[in-house]
Amino acid sequence: MTEPVSDRTLVDRVIRHRDETAFRTLYRRHTPYLFQFVLRVQARSEADAEDIVQETWIRAATGFERFRWDSTLRTWLGSIALNLTRDWLRRHGHREPVELEDERRAVAPTSVPERLDLERAIARLPDGYRTVLVLHDIEGFTHVEIGERLGIEAVSSRTQLSRARGALRTMLASADRTAGAPAPDRATSRRRDP
Amino acid sequence: MTDDRIDPNGEDDELTAVELEALARLPREKEPSDLLEGRIVQLLRERGTLVDRGSPARSSGVGFTSRGVPVWAAVAAGFALFLCGGLAGHRLGARSATDAFLAVREQDAALRVQEVGSAYVRSLMALETLRAESGADSTVGRGREVATTTLHAAARIMARLDPEDPLPPVLIELLEDRMRGETRDQAAIRRTFSF
After folding, report:
1. Nearest to B49 among A54, A61, A142 (CB)
2. Measuring CA to CA, which residue among A133, A135, A154, A127 is closest to residue A143?
3. What's the pTM value of the predicted model, to 2 decimals?
4. Are B110 and B195 in contact (CB under 8 A)?
5. ipTM of this complex prediction, to 2 decimal places
6. Which of B28, B64, B129, B150 has the maximal Cβ count within 10 Å?
7. 3-state secondary structure (DSSP) of residue A36
8. Chain A residues in contact with B33 (beta carbon < 8 A)
């Protein structure tokens, strides 16, 4: 089985030969990730998310020569996409924070939430909360990395994440109660790290 | 995930197993519409970042043939080929007629010219019939042009063969008028060339 051509080789072909086939290979390799990421952070419409992905590729392809390979190509593409998404959110107005119950009373769901429920709950988060939560809990970035990407202190990232999780739990618990599930005691439902 | 995810303030804010499982089940990829790729590639072509060499698996854009040759180039090449073929045919036809007349120079050249003239007139009549039936003006025009050129070549040969003959110069003058598009109706030409 032949090894897939590396991102670096493909990027080099685009730079040196303006190779469309190489670009299409890169596009097909990374776009599904980019689209899902943008759609989740932006949380508005697929059409707008596609526009952001489009602009991401235009900026990346016209700037391949400036990429120094300090990170993976996907990470670099994700950074461009994140910046563009945040610009888009600023231009289109922030979503008002959802009304939260007392976060201390919020409970985690007892069963694994349906994927769509969780996706909807994440989408309903305020833009800032949602961005940090997606980067940390889904994409796996550290608070330091998030701070660098968002231009905030790591402590702010941590605070936003805490609030985002609280808001998420509230929404999911509310959905649970609406569905008739008993509200469990939080202490027994939460995992405690040693 | 790294250590900085542990809350330094000791707040009980870690994800539960249920939450971790739920987050892990979220999809990491999603396909956008099929049109997006073409849109981006087209924009990059317009900026000169990409050059189409005709090898992508998917259809890549409007205005290109299946081999990646621009349609306008294919049309231009086809037209040029047609034009060259037409000109070559025209010249070949004229040369053949010239050769034929040279070959019979020692025989009755005047008789040959008369035959050509009569053939020319018959051709004109046939072409007029064709135009009336099919409306193919361009085809008829080309046919008439070739016939006129052939007859003109024949008249010039006649003039060289017998410089004393007064007829060839008259023929040449009439034909050259015709080729310049000067007014001569078909009946007048037919009268002129009915030997």
Report:
1. A61
2. A154
3. 0.57
4. no
5. 0.82
6. B150
7. helix
8. 46, 50
